[in-house]
Amino acid sequence: MSIRPILILPDPKLRLVSDPVAKVTSDLSPLIDDMFETMYDAPGIGLAAIQVGVPQRIVTIDTARNDEPRKPIALINPEILWSSDELSSYEEGCLSIPEFYEEVERPARVRVRFTDRDGSACEMEAEGLLATCLQHEIDHLEGKLFIDHISRLKRERVVKKFTKAARRDGA
Ligand code: GNR
Ligand code: NI
């Protein structure tokens, strides 16, 4: 197992649409294990495979608090089946946009279909932070970032800041 480097804005790979996983086999295990290790190390509550440079539709999530036991969830080919009309607002962050936080309004509840790492078809309904996190991660699979949900002025400001930083760091 290893911690993999996380791609940072404005890495163009973050804008790729990830490919569906054709067949869930144990070949995925090293990637999924590394995603959990990378996510817990960061620390973050979610990670999409593209954030470690792999354009496949795989997500890891654990929204358990620090004082609770871990609750790791791996989702392969996740799809939103239903989302509530009711919205809720969370201050979101992203491991690919470190130390930038902004309120985002999204559906308060979602129903998601996915395949788990054992290859079983699963569905889950979520609310609260988990619902927000699921939508944030599924956005990553479409090349979408949470800054796409904020005002253009704020987005352009943060993109500019990270573009300058990348230039300075010679990335
Ligand atoms: O760690 C994370 N926290 C978070 C907080 C509010 C809404 C979404 C998230 S996901 C983020 C990790 C990440 O970047 N996942 O793609
Ligand atoms: Ni993110």
Structural account:
The chain has 171 residues and is α+β, with helices and mostly antiparallel strands. The chain has one domain: Peptide Deformylase, CATH 3.90.45.10. It is 26% helix and 26% strand. It is built from 3 helices and 7 strands; from the N terminus they run H-E-E-E-E-E-E-E-H-H. The protein has helices at 29-41, 128-141, 152-168; strands at residues 46-48, 58-61, 73-83, 87-92, 102-107, 109-115, 121-127. A 5-stranded antiparallel β-sheet has the order 1-2-3-6-7. A two-stranded antiparallel sheet has the order 4-5. Strand 6 (109-115) and strand 7 (121-127) form a beta hairpin. The mean pLDDT is 97. Residues 44-48, 51, 90, 92-96, 132-133, 136-137, 140 line the site of ligand GNR.
Summarize it.
It contains three helices and seven strands; from the N terminus they run αβββββββαα. The chain has 171 residues and is of the alpha+beta class.
Q: Specify the biggest β-sheet.
A: 5 strands, antiparallel
Query: How large is the count of helical segments?
Result: 3
Number of strands: 7
Fraction of residues in H or I helices? 25-40%
Instruction: Identify the CATH architecture.
Output: Alpha-Beta Complex
> Compute the gyration radius: what is it?
16 Å
The 3D shape can be described as globular
The CATH first-level class comes to Alpha Beta
Helix/strand/pairing class, anyone?
Answer: alpha+beta
Provide the list of bound ligands, each named once: ligand GNR, nickel (II) ion
Portion in strands: 25-35%
Oligomer: single chain
CATH-defined fold name: Peptide Deformylase
Low-confidence spans: pLDDT under 50, at least 5 residues?
Answer: none
| H and E string | HEEEEEEEHH
Strand order of the largest sheet: 1-2-3-6-7
At the fourth level of CATH, the homologous superfamily is Peptide deformylase
Task: Estimate the mean pLDDT confidence.
Answer: 97
Number of domains: 1
- Euclidean distance between termini CA atoms: 26 Å
